[in-house]
Each structure stands twice: as C-alpha cells, then as structure tokens.
Design brief:
alpha+beta; Thrombin, subunit H; 4 domains; six-stranded antiparallel β-barrel; 14 helices; globular
C-alpha cells in the first residue's frame, strides 16, 4: 500500500497548471460535518466452480461472447477449463473460442490491422495456441513494415536510438542550435477568466518538441487538456509558435494519455529539426542532462543539470526522474536530452517553492504508448482490477513478487480466481519482483488481452504462501484501467471492503450494524501510519468521494487498542488513485 505523508506536494510546470499542497493523513477531530454515506449494496459473489448451475451460467456468458468478443470467450473458457469439472460442453466451448480467435487474427492480418493482430497473437500465445507459422518477432516485423509503408519512420525506429553527437561531452553549439529548432512553444487560448469582476486573459503556455518530419510533436497532456477533456466546457484554441517566428500556427491533438501526462499533437508545418528518442535505461544518478523549452514563453532556452534521483513515484503507473536542471512556468512538455542529444525524458513538473526540485517522465514510457498516441484518441491502460504490495517471502530480505491484497468484484483478477494473498511472480514468463515491475509489464499490454500470470497461491487471505508452495498459472483477461480506480471500487464494492485498497484496513462486520472489527492492517498503509491495529473497533459514519479533486474522505468512530479503547472520531483521506493499483 502507498505511504502517504502529511504534506505530499505535486506540481505542474505549465503556465496555469501549478503546484498545490495536499494535506493527507490522519486528522483527529471531536466531530465532523455530515457527509454523504452510500448504503451497503449487493456485490457479485466469486464464481463457485463446484456448483453446476454457477458453471452453467459462466458457460452461457462465454457462449454469448463468442461472436462479439472471441478473446473474452476464450479467457472465460480457459478459466472454466482450469477450475470447473471437465465436461464435453466445456471442451467444445474452448475449441470454438480458440477457432474464433484464430479467425479474428487471420482477418486482422488480411486487413493490415497490425495493432489488433498483435493483441490477438499475444492472447493466443499466452495459452500456447499461437497461430501456425507465426512468431511474436514476425508480427512485430510486419507491424514495422506497415509503419514504414505509411511513412511513420519514428515508430519504425523506436528501438534504434542513434546518437546526435559522436562522443560524450556537452552537445556542440551547432548541435544545440539544430536541436533548438526542433522545439516549439505551445499556446492554449482559453478566452477570458473573470476574477472579482475583472477579466483576465486565460492562457496556458507549455513547450513541445518535434519527433516526426510530418509535423508531429510531443507535449504534456495537462498543457492541452482543455482541447480534449469532455468535462471542460469553456473556450479553447490550440496554437504553436516556432522558434524565431511571430506567427501562431494552429495545431490539433492526435492522441493523449491523462495518466502518464503525455500528448501527441500535429501541426501542418515541416519542422526544421526533429528529435531522436533515447533509452532512459542509460541514465543513472549524476548523469548530465539538458532541458530545452520556453520557460515563461522565452523561446530557445536551454538549462543544464544532472539526474538527482530515479524511481520517484509522482505518477501512479510509473516512476519518474528527479532532476536539478532549472525548470519554470512554460517548460512543461519540453525535452530532456543527454550528452548524445537523445531525448531521455519529458519535463512535467516542478515544485515552485523548492528550487532545483523538478521532475521528468522517462522516455521509455513515451515509447511504450507512442503507437497508441499515433493511432489517435485517448490512450487506455490495462489492469488486473486489483491492488497489492511488494513482498519478500519468509526467510529472504529480497523482493520476491507482488502480493494481491484486494481484487475488485467482477474484475480481471477476481474472475481468474486468483486468491487474495497470492504472490504474483511473473507475467508471460517474465519475472516481476515488485509492484513497479508488474505495472511496467502491464503497461506494455493492451486491454482485452489474455496474459499468463505465474505465482504462489495463498490459502490464508491475510498471510503469504510459504516458500515451498508450488507455483501455478492463472490466465487473465486484462481490463481497462479507469483514471480513478478508487472511485470504481467505491461504486462496485461495499464500503467496508473498499477500506482495504483505499486505507489498508481489513474489516469484519460485527452483527447487523455498520460496526466492524479490524482483522488486519496493511504495513505502510494509511491506516497503519494512523495508528490502527488488529482488534480495533470501528464504525463507518460517512464516506465522501470527490471525483473532481481525486480524493475520498471517510469519517470513523473508533475504539483503538493503542489508545486504550477510548472513544474517538477520526477522519482519513486517501487518493482515488495510487501506485498500489495494478
């Protein structure tokens, strides 16, 4: 579970999207104002694979999906095949689903839909049922050939970073001048903002950099969000300004990713220069880097610094780089380049009151989603509809996998029958030792893809499997990750069960009231840091989820063992998104 400290600060580096202090943690109060409280609901029970009628119902669901979504039918059939009693109808269903999926793969190949063909191939390959005559490398080769034929050399060369300079050392003045011509200023005109009866021009200023000679460039999502966010109802017009030019040129957002804060935009100009994408794996703490952009709208600005730290969790799905190169308003979306002139990261945040504390998104995450950005529209991410934590197995200090702490009802992990407390150790045969490893593996898979998870099943939901437990495989159909997983959990599950992924508080109901006993507290979670422990008594008085701010507040009446079981009211606040979801 995430470790939320009292003052966790997140800031944006654009003109208008700036830093805000968010106080999170435990607040002891005598009483709290009444908050909205959802009534307890009925949630779907796990499939009983030993019950004939339950299995028959699942069989029918799989049959119903055969024509519309054969991959879903295939996943459902495989789960039944692994868990339910063997039957002729089940064997027939699995064979039909496999045949339908193979047919869909052939149709995608025939139509040249290689993104779809890749998803179908990976699903079949996870089940050791790959189309005859095809390998993953062959599908990848055909996909790259298609990119080349369509003039997209940027995607075709993603795995071939080529240095802009011949050796280590600062880029030459000539190289710097050429790279600067590949940067631009992003302007978003949002009309007039009225404050205290006075109208002000509402402008967002950011930076961007060309990656394609056809006029495609990269910037931050938060810079251009008003162009594509369906909840924004005001005026919004997007322009760019090239270096040494006064003309504002219209531009259009092609693809965007609110979670990773990245966007691909196109303008109808031929850039004087384009950037090449590097590999952030080449970086280490102390590596010299250079930031380019338009701070405060001042074009052709370059600052230098080093990588101050790696693996900072400012984004729920990935680690970011901490850098000390000076970053200011307007730098958002600008490139961070290394001494070879290759883009290694994209600027996205700076904390205004702390000079030299700035952050950038490693380029490998941009490269992972770039095909989807080119495809257009909002980028979707896959997930298991679960949350968990990195664990070490008994007798070992090293990280050994990811313990599944919670699964959403009807979610991918729950549907696959992965027991709570199980430890996931591999995805499609590739080892994962931490939550970050698992998220990184899932980031490379599309929703509605079947993956093979390997792990150690746990019989005790609050305990880890012993080291001698034999590994098993689970076949999971990945779902689409919502922007606010915590909000989906509150919508679909009981309030009492939602306390586990949100706060790390495992509750058992006492009688028919809304009073519960704490059965377990997840180490490092909000409840743990707030002094909760097993055998505490709590009553959920109110739950208020604010989707606009992305936080949920809960009011508890509690008697805690560490406080001598004195009556108290406690308010806890948590993010509706966190690094513990996968």
């Amino acid at each position: 579970m995430p470790n939320f400290s009292i003052n966790e600060t997140r800031a944006r580096g654009s003109g208008n999207a700036r830093a805000s202090l968010i106080a999170m943690g435990t607040v002891l109060v005598a009483a709290m104002a009444a908050l909205s409280c959802a009534t307890e609901k009925t949630v779907p029970a796990p499939v009983d694979f030993g019950n004939e009628s339950s299995v028959s119902y699942e069989l029918q669901l799989a049959r119903d999906a055969l024509d519309k979504n054969p991959v879903e039918a295939l996943a459902r059939a495989k789960i039944l095949l692994d868990n339910a009693p063997s039957s002729e109808s089940l064997d027939s269903l699995y064979a039909d689903a496999k045949t339908k999926t193979l047919g869909s793969f052939d149709a995608a190949v025939e139509a040249g839909k290689w993104d779809e063909a890749m998803r179908l191939f990976k699903s079949l390959n996870a089940l050791s049922a790959a189309p005859e005559g095809w390998t993953l490398s062959e599908v990848e080769r055909r996909q790259k050939d298609d990119w080349v034929q369509n003039g997209n050399e940027t995607l075709a060369d993603l795995d071939k970073p080529r240095a802009e300079t011949p050796s280590d050392g600062p880029p030459s003045p000539l190289t710097v001048s050429r790279l600067m011509n590949g940067t631009l200023t992003v302007w978003v005109d949002r009309g007039i903002k009225v404050e205290n009866g006075i109208g002000y021009a509402d402008r967002v200023i950011g930076s961007g950099f060309f990656i394609d000679p056809r006029g495609y460039f990269v910037t931050n999502y938060h810079v251009i969000s008003s162009e594509v966010d369906p909840t924004y109802e005001g005026y919004s017009r997007l322009f760019i300004k090239l270096q040494d030019a006064d003309t504002r040129i219209p531009a259009k957002v092609i693809g965007w990713d609110p979670v990773l804060d990245l966007a691909l935009v196109k303008t109808e100009v031929t850039p004087a220069s384009v950037f090449r994408l590097g590999s952030s794996g080449d970086l280490s703490v102390g590596t010299r880097i250079y930031a380019m952009g338009s701070p405060a709208g001042l074009e052709k600005t370059m600052t230098a610094g080093i990588v101050s730290a790696q693996n900072r969790r400012f984004i729920s799905l990935c680690d970011v780089l901490q850098i000390d190169a000076p970053i200011n308003h307007g730098n958002s979306g600008g490139p961070i380049v290394d001494e070879n002139g290759l883009v290694q990261a994209v600027v996205f945040a700076g904390i205004e009151q702390y000079e030299g504390l700035n952050f950038a998104i490693p380029v490998q995450y941009l490269k992972a989603i770039l095909p989807e950005l080119y495809a257009g529209g909002k980028v979707t991410h896959s997930w298991l509809a679960a949350s968990g934590r990195t664990v070490a197995l008994e007798g070992s200090p090293d990280s050994a996998g990811v313990a599944l702490v919670y699964g959403t009802p009807d979610g991918s992990a729950a549907a696959a029958g992965i027991p709570r407390g199980s430890v996931i150790t591999a995805v499609n045969g590739v080892p994962v030792k931490t939550v970050e490893d698992l998220q990184s593996a899932l980031l490379r898979e599309r929703p509605d893809t079947i993956v093979r998870l390997t792990g150690l099943p746990a019989s005790d939901p609050n305990g880890l499997p012993p080291p001698e437990t034999p590994p098993v495989d689970w076949y999971v159909l990945l779902g689409e990750r919502p922007e606010l997983p915590g909000a989906l959990i509150l919508d679909r599950d009981l309030e009492s069960r939602a306390m586990l992924p949100l706060f790390g508080l495992d509750l058992a109901r006492v009688g028919k009231t809304k009073r519960y006993t704490v059965t377990a507290v997840i180490p490092g979670g909000i409840a743990d840091e707030s002094g909760f422990s097993p055998m505490d008594v709590v009553e959920i008085r109110a739950v208020n989820a604010d989707r606009d701010s992305g936080f949920v507040s809960v009011q508890f009446y509690t008697k805690r063992r560490k406080s001598g079981y004195l009556d108290a009211y406690i308010g806890l606040t948590a993010s509706l998104d966190s690094p513990s979801y996968f």
